[in-house]
Amino acid sequence: AGEDSRHSLVLLVVERGMAGFERGRNLKKLGLDAQDTAELFFEDVKVPKENLLGEPGRGFHYLMEGLAEERLLAACVSAANARHAFDITRQYVGERELFGQPLSMQQNTQFTMAELDTQIDVVQAYLDQCVADHNKNRLTAEMASKAKLAASEIECKMVDAGVQLHGGAGYMEEYEICRMYRDSRVSRIYGGTSEVMKLIIGREIFSEKYRSILA
Predict the structure, then answer these.
(1) Range 2-39 burial, b when 16+ CB lie within 10 A, else e
(2) CA end-to-end span of the chain
(3) What pLDDT, in 10s, does the model give residues 37-92?
(4) Is 65 in the active site?
(5) Which residue among 23, 90, 112, 165 is buried most deeply as judged by most CB within 10 Å?
């Protein structure tokens, strides 16, 4: 009740078999084929009191408490995927020949890979700092948003470049970079889109804290 009533949510455990709860068909996605995704339907579901999670009315706060960690975890996955995509692309361009020499000897390939290697390392350095801060309970929503934004963007940039450097082979399902390209697209969406991350970061930039520094 009161000012915070709009955030007064309750977390409940809804189990399979409960009357009124149904799971829809598996949805077909662009990628992540190994992960089942389906719609859930709730109609007059009766949930017993013992299935209450935490205190009534604190559901929103519980969800918010885990958001920064969730986004940091997503960022770590994206950074790892970016580095793996880099490694398999480096191996491919070292073996593929073009105009009588390995593709890795072409200046365009070297410039592209040099830029990506640098950006992945920079993101990883920031992630390492965020993990250290999280372990000390100092990770903020803004820091986690920066981590997810940077990591998911470099992941998608890397897999796109990887497909390009693989040439026609990169468009074939038998090559891992092709599957990584499909799977990576959702990383800029789930856990908060890149646009939402920018909003969180932007609000912090123009918060009272920053204004007081500039004053």
Answers:
(1) eeeeeeeeeeeeeeeeeeebeeeeeeeeeebeeeeeee
(2) 38
(3) 999 999 999 999 999 999 988 888 888 888 999 999 999 999 999 999 999 999 99
(4) no
(5) 165
Per annotation, catalytic residue among 70, 142, 176, 204? 70
Average pLDDT of the chain is 92
Q: Which helix (H) or strand (E) holds 102?
A: strand 101-102
Burial 67-86 (b: 16+ CB within 10 A, else e): ebeebbbbbbbbbebbbbbb
Please state, in angstroms and rounded to a whole number, the distance separating the CA atoms of residues 127 and 84: 16
Question: Are residues 67 and 139 in contact, defined by beta-carbon separation less than 8 angstroms?
Answer: no
Round to whole Å and give the CA distance between 58 and 79. Answer: 33
Whole-number Å distance between alpha carbons of 78 and 117: 14
Give the span between the Cα atoms of 192 and 194, in whole angstroms: 7
Backbone angles phi, psi at 140, to 5 degrees: -105, 165
pLDDT at 101 over 70: yes
Contact by Cβ (8 Å): 69, 144? yes
